């Protein structure tokens, strides 16, 4: 059902990487000459049969090491010299089969063909991002008995396959930060680096910063460094514990951009080092008069995308919008019954409200100031999904944007025009709508991504904006094999989602935005089916089931009744 990090994996990872936070997890970093097997890498034990040799090869392919030396020892001498595995990895389920191939039996008793079959969970792409995949895995290995009597692989595949457990043991998940000019926030891009040797982690992470955003995020964020910036020397720790990073190619970058570059680097490295960071550009301070940096010294770039703690959230109940804080209706027609409210969404700053109203046999969108009359927008259909808000842009410009899905197949947005009217604007959502019927959609509060429920599956896509267009790109189904019958989703943090399903066995789950794993919430006290969920940073997770509203802060925590629980309520936090 769910895939959790085994306890042994956590213990081993912490033992080898004492300063790595528990929450972080398991790209492939090469660079050594192929064909070389260091003296300290032991040969396999004698007498292994072909099936065991093949399984051991796969289990050791997850250890990057020196030129994949731990896997290379299972090859014959010629293959050891010539094998050059491609960048990236295929991650397969921990349970996989190895059987002798009977269809291609060789008359030579010293040769065997082994078929490997399993289930593919995803790929670690060449840019070190995890891409979820639902597919069968199969691969053939040809083995030959060597003059010393040992079986060795003679035709190793270029594409490495590793088990999910071994991937978690040997790779470390790092959120690389990239800047979003639209929201003024830094956006996490989940990437994976080899966990050992620990001393090299900062350098490997810095390499990913320099590479720019992964394919799944390109166009949705700004690459502050571009192709021209690199490091003049290796990232290294000095005798006093400082981490030295010397950039070159920054050139005529403005002071504002230099501060953003510094923030991007420091935020990206904060999960792999506690050291202060010395940032140089061509030998002098990257930011004048600010040579040394710590994450605690950075301004809060994400302050505008996090709901204020005083905004306790709202809910729709029997066609009206009420407060989660005291259960009372909000001001204006949305709360007093003037509109027959189907669903609603509050802006991140709390000042505006968007509602879907049922009127004349259709559903219409209304948007305006909370507590006041809401303007009817020329956007309607047989059904509109619950609205979701784009974050407020810094430095002027548009002050709000609302998205919804019309009739399950058209993604629409409305923006605030100069004359104060809310007007429709286009979204190229072809890549998303091609996957099926969209029943729910939530924009991330940093505005770079959206999460959607499509044919009962959880899907994430990036939002790419240009001067005159908005498009959804790189849609990816998360946990496609195990997560089904999804009915609602929300962003718990910038890189984690909370999803509700109609399942009795898996009603509420937490999933990272790349879908590399899934954790189930405690289902105690819930009365399936769950029909709604809302989440936000530093907020309790809130779900709605047949009995009312329930809150829990942690995965293992038992759900407790919300203070103003009521049946048939649909809760929502700002965003």
From TrEMBL:
It comes from Amycolatopsis roodepoortensis. The keyword Repressor does not apply. Residues 1-20 form the signal peptide. Residues 202-290 form the GerMN domain. InterPro entries: GerMN, LpqB_C, LpqB_N, Quino_amine_DH_bsu. It comes from the Bacteria. SUPFAM superfamilies: YVTN repeat-like/Quinoprotein amine dehydrogenase. Pfam families: Germane, Gmad1, LpqB_N. The keyword Signal applies. This is Uncharacterized protein YceK.
């Amino acid at each position: 059902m769910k895939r959790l990090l085994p306890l042994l994996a956590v213990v081993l990872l912490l033992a080898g990487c004492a300063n790595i936070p528990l929450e972080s997890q398991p790209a492939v970093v090469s660079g050594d000459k192929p064909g070389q097997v260091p003296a300290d890498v032991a040969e396999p034990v004698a007498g292994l049969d072909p099936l065991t040799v093949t399984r051991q090869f796969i289990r050791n392919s997850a250890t990057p090491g020196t030129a994949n030396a731990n896997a290379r020892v299972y090859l014959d001498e010629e293959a050891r010299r010539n094998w050059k595995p491609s960048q990236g990895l295929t991650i397969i389920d921990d349970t996989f089969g190895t059987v002798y191939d009977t269809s291609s039996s060789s008359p030579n008793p010293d040769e065997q063909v082994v078929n490997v079959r399993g289930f593919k969970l995803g790929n670690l792409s060449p840019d070190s991002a995890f891409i979820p995949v639902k597919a069968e895995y199969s691969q053939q290995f040809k083995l030959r008995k060597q003059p010393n009597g040992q079986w060795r692989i003679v035709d190793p595949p270029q594409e490495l396959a590793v088990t999910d457990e071994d991937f978690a043991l040997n790779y470390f998940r790092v959120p690389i930060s990239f800047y979003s000019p639209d929201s003024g926030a830094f956006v996490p891009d989940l990437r994976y680096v080899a966990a050992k040797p620990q001393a090299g982690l900062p350098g490997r992470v810095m390499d990913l910063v320099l590479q720019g955003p992964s394919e799944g995020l390109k166009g949705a964020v700004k690459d502050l460094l571009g192709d021209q910036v690199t490091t003049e020397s290796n990232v290294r720790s000095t005798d006093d514990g400082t981490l030295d990073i010397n950039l070159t190619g920054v050139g005529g970058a403005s002071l504002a951009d230099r501060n953003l570059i510094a923030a991007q680097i420091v935020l990206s490295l904060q999960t792999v080092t506690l050291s202060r960071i010395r940032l140089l550009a061509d030998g002098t301070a990257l930011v004048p008069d600010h040579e040394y940096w710590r994450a605690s010294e950075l301004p809060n770039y994400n302050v505008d995308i996090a709901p204020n703690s005083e905004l306790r959230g709202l809910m729709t109940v029997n066609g009206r919008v009420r407060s989660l804080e005291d259960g009372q209706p909000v001001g204006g027609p949305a709360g007093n019954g003037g509109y027959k409210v189907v669903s609603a969404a509050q802006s991140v700053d709390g000042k505006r409200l968007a509602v879907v109203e049922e009127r004349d046999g259709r559903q219409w969108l209304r948007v305006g100031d909370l507590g006041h009359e809401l303007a009817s927008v020329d956007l309607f259909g047989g059904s509109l999904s619950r609205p979701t808000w784009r974050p407020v842009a810094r430095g002027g410009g548009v002050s709000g944007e609302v998205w919804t899905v019309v009739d399950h197949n058209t993604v629409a947005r409305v923006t605030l025009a100069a004359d104060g009217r809310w007007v429709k604007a286009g979204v190229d959502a072809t890549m998303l709508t091609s996957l099926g019927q969209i029943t729910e959609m939530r924009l991330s509060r940093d505005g770079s991504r959206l999460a959607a429920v499509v044919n009962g599956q959880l899907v994430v896509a990036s939002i790419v904006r240009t001067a005159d267009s908005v498009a959804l790109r790189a849609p990816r189904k998360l946990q496609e094999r195990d997560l089904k019958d999804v009915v609602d989703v929300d962003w718990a943090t910038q890189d984690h989602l909370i999803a509700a399903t109609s399942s009795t066995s898996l009603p509420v789950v937490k999933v990272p935005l790349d879908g590399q794993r899934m954790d189930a919430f405690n289902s105690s006290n819930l009365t399936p089916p769950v029909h709604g969920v809302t989440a936000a940073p530093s907020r309790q997770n809130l779900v709605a089931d047949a009995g009312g509203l329930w809150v829990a802060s942690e995965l293992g925590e038992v759900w407790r009744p919300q203070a103003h629980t009521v049946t048939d309520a649909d809760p929502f936090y700002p965003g």
